[in-house]
């Protein structure tokens, strides 16, 4: 059971990276929100499937489905701050705040459905040639290179942090049932 669930953050990040893709005590940036939402959705869809297959209880799946959007914030803050400079994090946030970045985030989120064998709730966004150029230009920046080419969010150290967080969430859901 845990192997599929443990791989979900990587699956979520891979989906984000196919399209494209910091918090302090009082501010959560768009990067953290975007990546966390995608990781959480992947975990939720996988646990729903595991419950349907009888591999986990419905109570645990319901608990995971009820997790709040901030469930992965601390992990993404830690990974982003260790892998990207402040200016690179700002560049990622600016990109994700743009029309193209928002489309990429939506594309990555929706890809979680198809990568977990689910129907898309809506069509994938389409990109104009100008939007594709903007995406390519972001990919040429230092932040874009690290995020899209080097895939630092998929490194073994990042995967270890994501897996630890998933395990903690599953333990909490198991204990609460």
Automatic annotation (TrEMBL):
Protein known as: DUF2059 domain-containing protein
Signal sequence region: 1-23
Swiss-Prot/TrEMBL keywords: Signal
Organism: Chitinibacter bivalviorum
